[in-house]
């Protein structure tokens, strides 16, 4: 049962306690889009095909109501766009973007290259680069980036050009089927950004990665800083760092002080912004893996983590965009990720701002509160 705000207030006024979860199921008085928009922050959602997502009219309507923008969750990845050498397929992405355009939603691209071979198309990983492997690798990379960016042109205001170039375990830059033939990761990454800038000079170009505030990500953060510095000294055209923000569980931080201290995270963001880069929260969701099974406590834990993270991160005015990786729990990738979703209790994960019925959860209220408290964007 869902009460509207007036009914919930009437019950509260009559001294009747609302069962946990019910009060926040009341339809919110303000949307994420309105609350964030007042401060100049753009809100977005990742859209993908499927019955709980693009094929559900209510979910599409929710996205249009709550967001300024969308990104394709999978439809603009290399594996989808160029499934076989030289064969491009824009059908899925074009359909999502056409709907978004009709709704007046802005559109961004993710991701021209996903560095780890595991996420590259298998044809590319197994490719025979022939007698002049460097030239052939350059031709393939250039063909992909040029064809894709030209297809979408100025329709997309922002692109993740490179995704996850750092190996978080070692802190080294990942080698891939392309880096090995193009003079190493820094040279190859530089090449990707230059190709993108040449073809879509007006688009914001983003380096996207999942380094977070937790102590376990120390090497990852340090490596991303080294990469951004190396690219800056080469004059690589990068505009922003994408912080994926698949946050929690921060067991290491929480064990120390109850609340995540975020000291290292601030230092990291100070360094990135000190180099002149903008920031994008590109894939926001909150793992409930280490939280109690009880739904009210779990939702409260997810909301608290979201608020802690957003309070610190959004205190940087350089954060211009916040994209959620799915708006409802059943439209979020963690639901099917055995290793990251909350599986211990055998219960479905609750990792986003809206529940499976598309009713707002405590995380929604936490986001609204964070937007009210953050400084306006420049
Ligand atoms: C994920 C999608 O959500 C899944 O549907 C897909 O199976 C795998 O990729 N980091 C990223 C995103 O940059 O592209 C990933 O998206 C999630 C982690």
UniProtKB/TrEMBL annotation:
Q: Where is the signal peptide?
A: 1-25
Coiled-coil ranges per the record?
none
Q: Which PROSITE patterns match?
A: GH10_2
Q: Name one Pfam family in it.
A: Glyco_hydro_10
**MF GO annotations:** endo-1,4-beta-xylanase activity
Which enzyme class? hydrolase
Q: Which UniProt keywords apply?
A: Carbohydrate metabolism, Glycosidase, Hydrolase, Polysaccharide degradation, Signal, Xylan degradation
Q: What is its EC number?
A: 3.2.1.8
Q: Which residues form the GH10 domain?
A: 26-370
Catalysis performed (reactions):
Endohydrolysis of (1->4)-beta-D-xylosidic linkages in xylans
Q: Which GO terms describe its biological process?
A: xylan catabolic process
Family recorded in the similarity comment: Belongs to the glycosyl hydrolase 10 (cellulase F) family.
Query: What protein name does the entry list?
Result: Beta-xylanase
